[in-house]
């Protein structure tokens, strides 16, 4: 498979990717949607990431509004399939398609890099220094007491969620690295029409959720 060297942009067409389905038996392939319907694809880190768990839940909440426009939604997590199925058994995402991609094949296909975390060297989006990470701020109104750096915010949210990190979660970790994530809206022909990724903004989008109004506006244009 040919991988993208940077995040796919509007007008780009991703290759077909076949993944183990979490929300049903069998597999899910991007080619299932081509020629049939537009699709919003969310490419996330493993479920051990508290921000990604919230992004998936937000996709599930937006799914009914997108389905009214004829748009499917697919959430992809780095978590191994059986571990992901166990999690979603207790945290249902009714109506939302989900798939497992522990090898991050889909992330590479869409050009989302594996970010190297260094002590103080930043070359975004391939490297980021912890000195820069500590200056970033994540806002989670109602869940965080104040804007916090991603590391501190993640620790607090994981503690709040009581998420138990299991061996399957550990298996997909890449020491000293962090998978960047994003969401891509593809039209009926499988062409990217809109995206929101952590790559944009020199790190200002790290752990941030997309703007629902912006997504729905883009969806309306794709559906028309």
Automatic annotation (TrEMBL):
Coiled-coil residues are none
CDD domains named among the record's database cross-references: PRX_like2
- Pfam families reported in the protein's UniProt record: AhpC-TSA (PF00578)
Query: Domain of life of the organism in this record?
Result: Bacteria
InterPro entries documented for this protein: AhpC/TSA, Thioredoxin-like_sf, Thioredoxin_domain
Looking at the record, the residues that make up the Thioredoxin domain are 8-224
Protein name in the entry = Peroxiredoxin
């Amino acid at each position: 498979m040919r991988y993208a060297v940077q995040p796919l942009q509007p007008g780009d067409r991703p290759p077909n990717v076949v993944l183990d389905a979490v929300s049903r038996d069998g597999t899910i392939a991007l080619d299932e949607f081509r020629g049939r319907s537009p699709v919003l694809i969310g490419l996330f880190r493993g479920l051990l990431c508290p921000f990604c768990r919230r992004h998936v839940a937000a996709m599930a909440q937006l799914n009914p509004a997108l389905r009214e426009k004829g748009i499917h939604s697919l959430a992809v997590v780095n978590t191994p399939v059986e571990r992901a199925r166990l999690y979603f058994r207790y945290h249902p995402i009714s109506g939302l398609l989900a798939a497992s991609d522990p090898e991050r094949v889909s992330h590479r296909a869409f050009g989302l890099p594996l970010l190297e975390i260094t002590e103080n060297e930043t070359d975004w989006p391939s490297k980021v220094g912890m000195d820069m990470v500590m200056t970033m701020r994540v806002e989670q109104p109602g869940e965080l007491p104040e804007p916090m750096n991603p590391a501190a915010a993640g620790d607090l949210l994981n503690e709040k969620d009581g998420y138990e990190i299991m061996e399957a979660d550990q298996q997909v970790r890449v020491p000293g690295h962090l998978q960047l994530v994003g969401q891509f809206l593809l039209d009926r022909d499988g062409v990217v029409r809109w995206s929101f990724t952590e790559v944009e903004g020199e790190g200002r989008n790290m752990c941030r959720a997309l703007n629902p109004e912006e997504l729905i506006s883009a969806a309306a244009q794709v559906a028309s």
